[in-house]
């Protein structure tokens, strides 16, 4: 199993995961947005994006399909070495949610609430010491 490193405010947490979902609520339109990610080697691969609505600069691409109330699509350039998450005040937007194996947690339960930005990346191969499951 791979390790996902989540770093913010001087804290790095390692989570055993091969696939995970990031979920949040759009700050303006107040609709859910979700992304499915997979760890491939030393990179993160975005396998699917989905949003329940459109507007305020979040229109789904032309190849998106409406399914179960969500517009779904696979991005054209899915690979990243890291994902940088910015955080709005919780009272405005809520918090990011990280879901692994069907269990979802708010980002503020994993790294300090004041952590901004938060970086997600594949942990280095030697990062198995001190494995923490939040």
From TrEMBL:
Domain of life: Bacteria
Species of origin: Methylobrevis pamukkalensis
Name the record gives this protein: DUF1850 domain-containing protein
Taxonomic lineage: Bacteria, Pseudomonadati, Pseudomonadota, Alphaproteobacteria, Hyphomicrobiales
